[in-house]
Amino acid sequence: MAKEVERCTWCGDDPLYMDYHDKEWGLPVHDDNKLFEMLILEGAQAGLSWITILKRREGYRQAFDNFDAVKIAGYNQKKIDTLLADTGIIRNKLKVNAAVKNAKAFLKLQEEYGSFDNYIWQFVKHKPIQNSWTASEQVPAETTESQAMSKALKKLGFSFVGPTICYAYMQATGMVNDHLKSCYRYKEIVALAT
After folding, report:
1. Which of 17, 25, 37, 42 is catalytic?
2. CATH number at residue 137
3. Alpha-carbon span 157 to 167, nearest angstrom
4. How many domains does the chain have?
5. Which of 6, 14, 143, 168 has its CA 20 to 30 A from that of 23?
6. What is the mean pLDDT of residues 25-45?
7. How far apart are CA 66 and CA 141, in angstroms?
8. For 67-93, what is each residue's pLDDT tens digit?
9. SS3 113
10. Which pLDDT score, from 0 to 100, does residue 192 have?
11. 72: helix, coil or strand?
12. pLDDT in tens, 109-147
């Protein structure tokens, strides 16, 4: 019988959660479209569990034109009303409007910095922060880096980018490695950063 691999405790035994943990969480992301997708999804998660968003990710991709920031920035009220009636996403008016607002801010930032990747990774000096937690209780909800990111993004017109959301974003996009040291992915993620 194959030995069970040890994972971070937060993903439990839900196959969707385990797949996300094993293939995405903590993996350094430098693709602007993927970085934008995760920014919208992390904002949508506010007040909810991440599994709630994961289960609707395909719904979000369909509803939000595969997270095409140019298309989203051009959404009119009719499109927003359609989104608010879409059961495949979280139908929260503030969050849907924030996605449109964030798309506009994202495009402006891309233009100014050449890429969103170039801008957002500056908060970790363009290199993933390697933490070495031994228990999930040690993992912070926010850090000085996520506070700085939150403040900067809000100043640039982004919404749903509080320091806790920004830290979850940093974890998801590999800006920080918060896999527990006992997790089989920990060393794999460390190796990717060197």
Report:
1. 42
2. 1.10.340.30
3. 18
4. 1
5. 143
6. 97
7. 29
8. 999 999 999 999 999 999 999 999 999
9. helix
10. 87
11. helix
12. 999 999 999 999 999 999 999 999 999 999 999 999 999
Paired residues of 176 in beta bridges: 129
Distance of CA 47 to the CA centre of its chain: 15
Amino acid at 39: L
**Is 10 tagged catalytic?**
no
| 3-state SS, residue 106 | helix
Q: Residue 3: is its pLDDT beyond 80?
A: no
Query: Which residue segment(s) compose the domain that 164 sits in?
Result: 26-193
Percentage of residues in the chain having pLDDT higher than 70 = 98
- Look-up: residue for tokens 């920035």? 73
Within a domain: residue 48? yes
- Asked if residue 12 belongs to a domain, the reply is no
Does a structural domain hold residue 139? yes
d(CA 161, CA 153): 7
Q: From CA 66, how far away is CA 101, in angstroms rounded?
A: 17
Q: How far apart are the first and last CA of the chain?
A: 34
SS3 68: coil
Higher per-residue confidence, 3 vs 185 = 185
Q: Is the pLDDT of residue 190 over 60?
A: yes
Whether 58 is catalytic: no
Among the options 20, 24, 142, 188, which is catalytic? 20
41 domain-assigned:
yes
The DSSP element (H or E) to which 25 belongs, if any, is none
**The model's pTM:** 0.95
- Residues 10, 24, 50, 188: which is the catalytic one? 50
